[in-house]
Every structure is written in structure tokens, then in C-alpha cells.
Amino acid sequence: MEMGVKKSRWIKDRLFFGGVCLFSGLTAIPLVLIIWEVLKKGYRQLNWSFFTEAAPNSLEAMMAVNSGDLIPGGVANGLVGSLLMVLLAIIIAVPVGIFAGIRLSEHPESRFSGVVRSVAELLQGTPSIVVGLIIYGWVVKPLGSYSGFAGGISLAMLMLPLIIRSTEETLKMLPGSLKEAGLALGASYSTVIVRVLLPSAFGGLFTGILLAVSRVLGETAPLMLTALGATAIEWNIFEPMSALPLQIWEFYNDPNLAGLIWSTSLFLLLLILVLNLTAKRIARKWKI
Amino acid sequence: MKDKIFKGLLYGACMLVLLLCAAMVYSLVSGSWQAFREFGFFRFLVSTEWDPTVGKEQYGAWTFVTGTLYTAFLALLFCIPFSLPVALFTGEYFKKTKIASVVGSIVDLLAGIPSIVYGLWGFYTLCPLMKSWGLSDQGFGVLTSSLVLAIMIIPYASSLSSEFISMVPNELKEGAYSLGATRLEVIRTVVFPVAGSGIFAGYILALGRALGETMAVTMLIGNTIQIPHSLGDTGNTMASVIANQFGEASGLKLSSLIAIGLLLFIITAVINFLGKLIINRQKGK
């Protein structure tokens, strides 16, 4: 009798463990399936012109598909747009985010910091489409046209809370003696922060920026309401501009261009993956 | 002097964050003013009308609110059987081992895939499956979108739960082991009660994610303006209706869409606030 009870408890324990392992493993299946599908359908289109030419029009694509060729043209317009808008977002969000993060880590307990921290969390939780709506009202409407500028600002809004958070977390991990040593040498407060704290925290800050970039690189919804998209390569940020995820959306909506969906997705996934891996490497190398 | 300027800069950056947020709320409210003035806040919220015919325009948010809540809660339900094992795997069974970090990074990768790629995958792989299994007429609908949403929020739910599970003090667990408890019994009687509210908070934050998700849902839910009555029904969510109808919107319709954006903002803010509140209380313990 006693043995039986013990055994059933043991069996339950093992079964549960098996279940945990099984279901944890199952979680990887969608990832494998998605990557497999994107690879399988996308690798064929990844050639030189894919990166150097703008998207083809519907007719050209249809003719190429009908004669069994690869679809001509590429995603250069989206690539240029993504680069410009992300760059603009970095220029805006990184300084503000780092300064705010420094302030939060310097006064962690103050009431003001608490408010700023909650507001940053509120920003971070805001759905990206709502950010798009807001930037539409702030930038697109007053300027009278959709633009890469508006797109970049919406991406900056999405990046800002991420940067604030990573800056604060990184600076919190620095030993307090570092700052004290600097101050003891007679350096001013600003010198200590700019010349001692920030360089020591460089790895963490850089990782945070890379992760934030990889997060906003795939954003589609806010750009639909702000940058709109463009069929030609556009260098002027005050004109409507395309982006890689926006192009996937356009290709998805045009059956003739459907062949380009997967290669664009593959490229976007690779970009995000490389950013993520680089970020992790840097984080490991510069570990405090 | 230099220090003063520097401190001013730091302070200014914080003030800018606060100002941005205030301006966001202000512009959402002022943008939706027209719709609320026309229909009244409460009537706009509970009305299921959506008629853009010029002259007798009628807009209401209820269809989309229900669609959003429906898909998000279903997604949360679907994600539990996967995110909870992952959390136990990385936070308890294989805590701080190599294999846990491998599983952790695989799950992290799920978070890195853009929403639109999930949408594509759902559209080209999941929809045909749904159709052939007879779960939905055209493959679109609430079930398809919430399945994809569930996959998307697994990383958010599991990472926080895992953190709280791994924070359960060893002495408590050892106490239970010394009384002869098996690992399952330790998890059930020690880990879950201690880490419970943290795990719960993780799911609340994951719910917040699911509520605001746009692209994948827009591509999969079918975008029909009706309240879904069954899992296979098509519908629309707050985020997807904004994404879909924004392009041709102006005047009262635009204002109504912004009003829906405001409602979505409020709902996600409340959900996130609740989650953070629980986390802070748990961490303060």
C-alpha cells in the first residue's frame, strides 16, 4: 500500500517533468516552421538586383512570373527608407533616452524619477498603431503630407522607452566606487558621468540601442499612418517613404508581387537576427 | 556652471518624456473630441453601428472592443500551456544551465520576428490548415488570429514568469524536499504559491501586448465589421480597424478612429498598470 502511493507520486512527478520538457520543445516548432517557410520561398529572389533596384511595378512582375522568370527589381526603396528612418529615430531617441536614463539612475528614489519611470513604462506599453495615430496628428497633418520624417519620429517614440530603460539598468549595475573615485580626484559631476560612467557602461548602452533598433525595424503599423510608402528610391525625408516591412505589406496586397514577399521577409529576419546576435556578443564582451 | 547645464540637460530629458506623454494624451483626446461630441462618449463606446455613408454617418466602438478582448483573451488562454512549461523549464528544472539559456534564446527569437511576418505565416500556412480542418469557412477569423497572437506573446509571458519562478528562495523548496515532497509537489505547493502573483503579472503584461498587436491580426481576422459569435467567425479589432480604415478616413470617421485609438490606449494602459502594480508589490515583499 505505502509503496503504491509512493510510486504513483513518483510517476506523477516524472510525467509532469516529461510534459514540461515536451511542451517547452513544442514552443520551438512555430519558430522552425516560420523560418523554414521564409527560407524555402525566399532564397531564390535574393540576388544583387534585389538590393540595388526599387520595387517593380505590377505589370513587369506579372510578365516575369508568366514567363517563369524571377521577378525583376528589388527592395532598395524600402532598404533606403528603413535606414533613413531608423537613423533619424536613433538621432532623436538615443540622446534623450540616455540623458533621461542617467537622471533616473542618479536619483533612483526621488518622486520625480518614479513618475518619469511610470510614464516611460506607459509609453512602452502603448500599442504601436496608437503611436502612429498620434504622430499623424503631430507631423503629417501640419506638414500636409506623409513623410519619412514622420515615420522616423514615430519609430523614435517607440525606441525612447527602451533606451531609457536599458540605460538605467546598465548604470545601476556600475559599482558606486567608480563614481566616488572620479569625484575624489576632483572631477566635476558632469565630467565623472561623461568621462567615467558612460564609457564604462558603453557595452550595455550599445546593446540597448541595437536591441531597440531591431525592435523597431520590423514595425509596420505606425509607418502605414506616417511614412505611407513609395515605389521609387527616396532620399528626401520630407517625402513619403517606403520601409522594408511596408514593402512586405505592399507585396502582400498585390498578387503579382507576391513572389517578393518571402525574400523581403527573409532579408528583414536576417537583419534583425544579426542585430540581435551582435547585441548579445557585445553584451557578453563588455560585461561589467 | 558646467555641472548646472549638465544637470539641466538631464532634467530636461526627463521633462521631455513627461511632456511627450501629456501631449500624446492631449492629442488623442482632442482628436476624438468630434466623435464624442457627435455620439457621446458612452454611446460611442457601446454602439455597434459602423456606417460611413455620407449624411447619416454612425460610428461606434463596441464591435471592435469585443473583437479585441475576444482575440486577446483567447490568445492568453492558448499561450499558457506553452509559456508555463517554458517558464518552469528555464526557471526551475534547468535553472542557470546551458540548455535553459538555449531554450531561452529560442523563445527570445520568437519575440524578434516582426508582426507582419507572423501575419504572412498565418495567412499562407495556418489559414489553409484551418480551412481544411473545417474550423473556419475561409480560414480567417478569431481562432486563427488568436493562435498566431498566442505564439507572439509566449516570450513575454514566459520570460517574466521564469524570472519570478527562479526567485523562489531555495530554503523554502529545501524545506519541502526534506519532508519528502517530490519535485512536482514542491512546484505545486511552494513555487506556485510563492511566485504566483508574479506569474500572474507576467500574463497580464502579455495580455497588454496581445491587445495592441496590429499587423498579424489585421491580416488574419477577416476585417468584417461584426461581433464574432464563434471561434470560426471573422471580426475586427480596435487596432485592425484603425490600420484598415485609416487610409480613406477624414472628418467624423477619422475622429472616430482616433477615439478608438484613445480607447485602446486606455485599455492597454490600465492592463499594464495592473501588471506593474502586482510586480512591484511582489518585488517589495
Provide a count of the helices of chain A.
Answer: 14
Q: Would you identify the CATH architecture of the largest domain in chain B?
A: Orthogonal Bundle
Instruction: State the end-to-end CA separation of chain A.
Output: 57 Å
How many domains of chain B? The number is: 2
The second-level CATH architecture of the largest domain in chain A is: Orthogonal Bundle
Low-confidence stretches of chain A: none
- Overall number of structural domains of chain A: 2
- Order of neighbouring strands in the sheet with most strands of chain B: 1-2
Determine the most extensive contact between two protein chains.
A-B, 80 and 78 residues
Structural class category of chain B: mainly alpha
CATH H-level superfamily title of the largest domain in chain A: MetI-like
> What coarse outline of chain A follows from CA principal-axis ratios?
globular
- Helix share bin of chain B: over 70%
Supply Rg of chain A.
24 Å
Shape of chain B: globular
Stated plainly, the CATH topology of the largest domain in chain A is called MetI-like fold
Plain-language structure description:
The complex is a heterodimer of chains A (288) and B (285). Chain A contains 14 helices and no strands. With 288 residues, chain A is an all-alpha fold. Chain B folds into two domains: 44 residues; 227 residues, MetI-like (MetI-like fold, Orthogonal Bundle), CATH 1.10.3720.10. Helices cover 78% and strands 1% of the residues of chain B. Chain B is built from eleven helices and two strands; from the N terminus they run H-H-E-E-H-H-H-H-H-H-H-H-H. In chain B, strands 1-2 form a two-stranded antiparallel sheet. In chain B, helix 4 packs antiparallel against helix 6, helix 6 packs across helix 8 and helix 10 packs antiparallel against helix 11. The longest helix of chain B is centred in the first third of the chain and has 38 residues. Chain B is globular. At the A-B interface, helix 1, helix 2, helix 5, helix 6 and helix 7 of A face helix 1, helix 3, helix 4, helix 5 and helix 8 of B.
